[in-house]
Amino acid sequence: MNDLFDLSGKIALITGGAGLLASEHAIALAAYGATVIISDLNVEACQEKATELIKENVHVEVMQLDVTSKENWISVTQAIIQKHGHIDILVNNAGFTNQSKTSAFDRSFENFPLEDWNAIMNVNLTGTFLGCQVVGVEMLKQGKGSIINIASLYGVVSPNHKMYPGTGISQPVAYSVSKHGVVSLTKYLATLWAEKGIRVNSLTPGGIWNGHDGLFLERFKNLNPIGRMSDKTELRGGIVFLASDASSHVVGHNLIIDGGWTAW
Length: 264
Known about the structure:
This protein has helices at 22-31, 43-55, 70-84, 114-142, 173-193, 214-223, 236-243, and strands spanning 11-14, 35-40, 61-64, 89-92, 145-150, 198-205, 254-257. The chain is α/β, with parallel strands linked by helices.
């Protein structure tokens, strides 16, 4: 059974390397033998994450990547191919969130600027599209590969708008729409490439605790069947599952790890 999860010799690229979850994905994949590259537009912050990972005996490579640039995707992918010979796992994790906001992320729908709509769409959805397109070409040459697109609760259901007033936290329209698009893109590519050896799936995290407290935390706990937010470590199993042969017949699936939020 252990062989099902073995990632020895696999090369994995994770985007959004400076964010909250990329380090967790890296820890999980490296623990099962993968060589991991984390990437971010902010390469200095990405390097800081790599330094933190070294303290946990997790060694990763760091590359600068602007996910909205096809040329940058091509250059990074080719650099990985030249160094390692192949690329086996892509985790499209980069995105604007409440931890990495655009300037008007908190605006109401009625006042939401087109500039912020475009910025969020460009990173969350177009960036995922470009990653799948560019890395997918290399995986098609290899005849194998696993792409994991990080979606969201709000790519499955609408935000609960009554949860946010008075909390200082918001979920803008562009975030929800972009994550719905990620789920749809995943299904499109999964059915297109399944017979060619490329498995494309998405992973939907629930609300990840990141210092939340007060009114928002209490409301969230009352609305979630499990009665709490997720710990960031609780996605590790899902990432390894989707990346490995343990999910060899899993195609176009959106793996939801949300404590039951979407089961109500």
